[in-house]
Amino acid sequence: MQVRIVVVVCCALGVTLAYPYGAPVGSCLAMFPTGHAVDQQTSAPPFQIQVSQATYNPNDVINVTLHTLASDLYKYWEGVLLQARRVAGNMDEPIGTWTIMANDTNDLKTLNCSGINNSAVTHNVEKHYVTKVVQWTAPPQAQGHVKFRATFVKNKVTFWVNVMSATVQDPTAEPITDNGKNGASSTRVIYGDVFVLATLCTLLKRML
Ligand SMILES: *[C@@H]1O[C@H](CO)[C@@H](O)[C@H](O)[C@H]1NC(C)=O
Ligand SMILES: *[C@@H]1O[C@H](CO)[C@@H](O)[C@H](O)[C@H]1NC(C)=O
Ligand SMILES: *[C@@H]1O[C@H](CO)[C@@H](O)[C@H](O)[C@H]1NC(C)=O
Ligand SMILES: *[C@@H]1O[C@H](CO)[C@@H](O)[C@H](O)[C@H]1NC(C)=O
Fold it and tell me: To test the ligand 3 pocket, which listed residue (112, 113, 118) has its Cβ within 8 A of the most ligand atoms?
């Protein structure tokens, strides 16, 4: 009986992403991968979003680097959804537009979220990503301070939401202080369970 349950779970784990060719526009607002049917991770995210500038002016182009931390046990993500959001006021709207580097167009693509062309970045194929640089272009008008916010998906049952960059300040807005910390929030830990299951699956594959 227990073996049968593990086999079923192994089959489910084999389908690593609900959306192997990128997040759907339906996930633009909440940035939550609902197709995964489990909660996000509660642990500190093993990913970081780095920015090439601490402030922005209209039409500035900022390099945004997504990378895996050395502390990550497996050191990759498979799926991502990235947007710039205001830190105050309307925090639901994606700000600015994205450009995928010419040599990354097989791996990454832009999404039109909230009816704004190229206002988000997502994966284009299911593979192991370790680091990626994408370019953000600020809107032609000042929008207040922004943060880059991402959902990183390791596999169908393991993902982190609300991974945040440091605040990129708009010099025309009221200055703020920022500790640059990740804003992970959450409800349930399953990473350990997944690791145990993955080990069991490997053993089972050898046995069956
Ligand atoms: C942004 O990335 C591009 C392409 O790799 C590079 O040419 C440019 O120097 C980078 N700019 C900054 C500010 O890091
Ligand atoms: C694309 O170019 C950048 C900068 O030259 C490099 O760091 C990156 O690894 C390249 N990406 C791929 C998929 O080759
Ligand atoms: C986003 O909008 C542009 C311009 O209308 C369109 O060419 C592109 O196909 C759209 N992208 C997606 C993913 O729908
Ligand atoms: C989106 O792109 C399309 C095609 O390039 C263009 O016609 C449309 O005006 C753009 N929409 C916005 C809101 O910029």
Answer: 112
| Euclidean distance between CA atoms 4 and 14, whole angstroms | 15
Reported pTM:
0.80
Tens place of pLDDT per residue across the chain (208 aa): 444 444 444 444 444 678 899 999 999 999 988 777 788 898 899 999 999 999 999 999 999 999 999 877 778 999 999 999 999 999 999 999 999 999 999 999 999 999 999 999 999 999 999 999 999 999 999 999 999 999 999 988 889 999 999 999 999 998 887 544 444 333 233 333 444 444 444 444 444 4
- CATH number, domain of 9, equals 2.60.40.4060
Domain of 18, in residue numbers: 2-172
Residues with CB under 6 A from ligand 1: 52, 63, 133
Q: How far apart are CA 108 and CA 22, in angstroms?
A: 8
Q: Where are the beta strands (DSSP E) in 87-130?
A: 97-100, 108-113, 116-123
Shared domain for 22 and 73, answered yes or no, is yes
158 and 182 together in one domain = no
Same domain, residue pair 80 and 120: yes
